[in-house]
Amino acid sequence: MGTSVKIGRRMSTGDVLFDMCNVIFWVIILLLVMYPLWLVIIASVSDPDAVLAGKVTFWPVGFSLSGYVGIFQSDQLLRSYFNSIVYTVTGTFVSVFVTMMGAYALSRNFAGKGAVNFFIIFTMFFNGGLIPSYLINKSLGLNNNPLVMIVLGVVSVWNLMIARTYINTNVPGELYDAAVTDGANHFVFFFKVVLPLSGTIMAVLCVYCGVARWNDYFTALVYIRDRKLLPLQTILREIVASLNSTAASMIEDADKMDTINVAAIKRQAEVAKYCSIVVSTAPAVMLYMFMQKYFVKGVLIGSLKG
Amino acid sequence: MRSLAPDASSDRTSSGGDRNSVTAYNSKGAPWNRFKRAIERDWQIWVLLLPTIAAFVLFSYLPLYGVQIAFRDYKAVQGILGSKWVGFKHFTDFFASYYSLRLVLNTLLLNIFGLIWSFPVPIILAILLNQLVFAKFKKFVQTVIYVPHFISTVVMVGVLYLFLSPGNGIVNKAITALGGQSVFFMMEPGWFRTLFISSDIWQHAGWSTILFIATLTGIDPELYEAASVDGANKRQKILYIDIPHLIPIAVMMLILSCGSMLASNTDKALLMQTSGNMPVSDIIGVYVYNMGLGKAQFSYTAAINLFINVVNFITIMMVNWVARRVGTTSLF
Questions:
Q1: What average pLDDT is seen over chain A?
Q2: Chain center to CA of A152
Q3: CATH number for the B89-326 domain, one of 1.25.10.10, 3.20.20.140, 1.10.230.10, 1.10.3720.10?
């Protein structure tokens, strides 16, 4: 490794060897991580016959976007995609806002704070479990109600804690004292000072909440009965994550089935699976990529507390 | 999870000045007056807390109140309070049932094997990542290994089904091309745990390095300088500087994991369950989902859930106690 010699101190042969092995190790890890992702992407743009024959291994074979055209003609998939966007955007907005309010409050001193902390942490150790939660939520009118996709899990203990730690370390108490002298109260201070100073942690919370909501299928599986209200992941489950899945589940009703060439659909079913994986995963990964710079910084601050 | 030792930092801020000062509490008069004063002073804070508290009451505490159906024979028409008390009937039913041992064993084994295999990986990765000398390459590696964490469970399992399909999955194509016999991985009980755990490691090991990387970044550089002056090589620096610094946080993570040895990753197990791997993939969470929601056995499954919860809690307390006695690290 020629470059490693440049870093000043002369390195022992053992250390140079170590660095070389380390680089090789990471190249292998990178391949292990990236190859499955790459394989899904190239399969999604390859010729269906080549995919079925297992000829697609390192490079797309017979480039074709027919799979994507196919899934964008599926009403079911498009509607669930739209539903997921609505659930994710509203849910994330509400979550981040509520979490920031709660975290700010918990960063102040007030009578009864210890009790509130206990009240919140207690829920990490004891929960009602699936069935009691289901019965309670049903009696709250959340069964088969799209609202359930937004209010369920609106705050998590973990998010509250990292946001509180962030506010503690980044919004000095003296700022509040100064603001009070200028006639500000907690509400004004929260909106005018705390939120503008908390960009990093809000970006992190956005990624946490947004990705969690986008990727969640279980909530809908338990609570949503109406197919028109289902989010993307639940539909995706029918398409890719079961033993006898076919792309036919993308097609709404039997009538439509007749008008479209069934044989062609079956042939494309395999590629359509890859396409729907790409289309459903892209938003979450892109959100992470965009927010990455805030992300590493914010997460570090959150986890390095104390 | 890491912030279980609450308030270590929260007390240090904001105690400076403001109207919270001690004098406010010195007011003579009945507790009622003190209460009124506290409300007068803090009501805005309570307003800001209101949505958080409401969410925990609705979605955490009301279900806890609903846990009593574990001791009742819940009927929808009679409601939670109207249903008949039956004591520990559902618990004894569960232990007497044919499935209970299999369920508990399946859950326990999946978690134990999962812990053994996936616990060391992020620590090793973090140490080796920290040793990478090329800043650009390091950054690139970090970006890439976090990506799988953002893939949904549905997609992860979907990819398993696609790649491992006996007919045209790439893995079986490779096996048959090499002259082997095609394997129906998703139907084989023997493959379930391996696939479950290895796909978990692929997805989350990279992401889990964050905490350990953060710890390593926090180590005083002078320590390494001093070690270099003394002629330490990289292996020695890892052994005598990196690892000792990682132990406290690793122990904490380990204690936390021990508190979920009977917990279930229901989402994933449900997706990976097939008629073939049922003898191994039937874990408590999936059973509760199938029996509870599928067959409306509300009280019975609530009892199972409660049992798991209590066992998990006792385990974490015991492990924590041992850790405090033996070592220096504990949650509380």
A1: 84
A2: 16
A3: 1.10.3720.10
Torsion of CA A71, A77, A83, A85, to 10 degrees: -30
Domain boundaries, chain A: 2-64, 67-303
- The whole-angstrom distance between B35's CA and the closest CA on chain A is 9
The structural domains of chain B, with segments of one domain joined by +, span: 21-73, 89-326
Q: What is the mean pLDDT of residues B120-125?
A: 96
| Closest Cα in chain B, distance from residue A258 (Å) | 27
pLDDT band at A54 (very low <50, low <70, confident <90, very high): confident
A115 by Cβ neighbours in 10 Å (0-12 / 13-18 / 19+) ranks as: exposed
**Ranges of H-type helices in chain B:** 31-56, 62-66, 79-82, 89-96, 100-118, 120-131, 135-146, 153-164, 170-177, 189-217, 221-229, 234-237, 243-258, 266-272, 278-281, 284-288, 295, 298-326
Q: Give A67-303's CATH code, choosing from 3.40.225.10, 3.30.360.10, 1.10.3720.10, 3.30.470.20.
A: 1.10.3720.10
Interface of A with B in 147-206 (CB under 8 A): 151-155, 158, 160-162, 164-165, 168-169, 172-174, 176-177, 180, 185-187, 190
Query: CB–CB of A56/A41 below 8 Å?
Result: no
Length of chain B: 332
CA distance A132 to chain B (A): 5
Q: How far apart are CA B309 and CA B232, in angstroms?
A: 48
**Chain A residues 64-83 within an 8 A CB cutoff of chain B:** none
For B294, residues 6+ apart whose C-beta sits below 8 A from its C-beta are none
Helix (H) or strand (E) holding A195: helix A195-197
Q: Which two tokens stand for residue A7?
A: 């870093």
Residues in chain A: 306
Q: Which residue(s) pair with B85 in the sheet? A: B72
Whole-number Å distance between alpha carbons of B299 and B69: 5
- How many other C-beta atoms can be found within 10 angstroms of the C-beta atom of residue A10? 7
- Comparing A206 with A10, which gets the higher pLDDT? A206
